[in-house]
Design a protein that fits this description.
InterPro entries: HAD-like_hydrolase_sf, HAD-like_sf, HAD_2, HAD_sf, PGP-like_dom2. Pfam families: HAD_2. GO terms for molecular function: protein tyrosine kinase activity. Helix 1 crosses helix 4 and helix 3 (about 45-55) packs antiparallel against helix 4. The protein contains ten helices and eight strands. Strand 7, helix 9 and strand 8 (about 200) form a beta-alpha-beta unit. The longest helix has 17 residues, at about 60-75. The protein folds into two domains: about 1-15 and about 80-210, Rossmann fold (3-Layer(aba) Sandwich), CATH 3.40.50; about 15-80, Putative phosphatase, domain 2 (DNA polymerase, domain 1, Orthogonal Bundle). It has about 210 residues and is α/β, with parallel strands linked by helices. The chain has helices spanning about 15-30, 35-40, 45-55, 60-75, 85-95, 110-115, 140-150, 165-175, 190-195, 205-210; strands at about 1-5, 10-15, 80-85, 100-105, 125-130, 160, 175-180, 200. Strands 5-4-1-6-7-8 form a six-stranded parallel beta sheet, with helices on both faces.
Length: about 210
């Protein structure tokens, strides 16, 4: 079996750095700064989708906000995260038996730095993420990129694990099963509405689920 893990809201709690980075971007652009709870809802899906579809910004303005966000994130935000309690132990145990990888909409270079910073990088066969030019940013495209790099043949026993709807939707588009998790930034209703195959409430429950499959 193969397990693909989302990063933000699944492996690490990165809310602090992302909230600070988006606050910095909105402040610099002169836009009204959403409250922290509202910004938390932006974590997970690609910012380009959120800015253009949910906030109604133009593509040009959205690209500007993303650029300014990255100014903060590269210098500070990438250090403002912590692995969820029990996650390191889970990755150590699961990687000893199965092949695991990361599939994230976060820029790949940042994802790799964050995992190395927390001592988690070596558990993964491959770490795949978005490109800085947004040519690969949709979760489905990232998943396909990761599967290609893992040389996955049959997808029958490959699972995507994540906390938001793009993880579940991307898994479905790629013919994978999905496991939604509730300690991140999504909700049970969100994960259920996108037909996650399983939904787990805690890291310990996720570990039990993985070893029961």
């Amino acid at each position: 079996m193969i397990f693909l893990f989302d990063l933000d809201g699944t492996i690490v709690d990165s809310a602090e750095g992302i909230i600070n980075g988006l606050t910095y971007a909105f402040e610099k652009s002169g836009d009204e700064i959403p409250n922290n709870e509202t910004i938390r809802k932006y974590i997970g899906p690609p910012f380009m989708d959120t800015f253009t579809r949910e906030l109604g910004f133009s593509e040009k303005k959205s690209r500007y906000l993303i650029e300014v966000f990255r100014e903060y994130y590269v210098e500070n935000g990438k250090y403002e995260s912590e692995p969820y309690t029990g996650m390191k132990d889970l990755l150590e145990e699961v990687s000893s038996k199965y092949k695991i990888a990361v599939a994230t909409s976060k820029p790949e270079v940042q994802a790799r730095e964050i995992l190395k910073n927390h001592g988690l990088y070596d558990y993964f066969e491959f770490v795949g993420g978005a490109t800085l030019d947004n040519s690969r940013i949709k979760k489905h495209d990232v998943i396909e990129y990761v599967l290609d790099n893992l040389n996955v043949g049959s997808r029958e026993n490959t699972y995507m694990i994540g906390d938001r709807y793009p993880d579940i939707l991307g898994a479905s588009k790629s013919g994978l099963k999905s496991i939604g998790v509730l300690w991140g930034y999504g909700t049970y209703d969100e994960l259920e509405s996108y037909n996650a195959n399983y939904i787990e409430e805690s890291v310990e429950n996720l570990k039990d689920r993985i070893f029961s499959l």
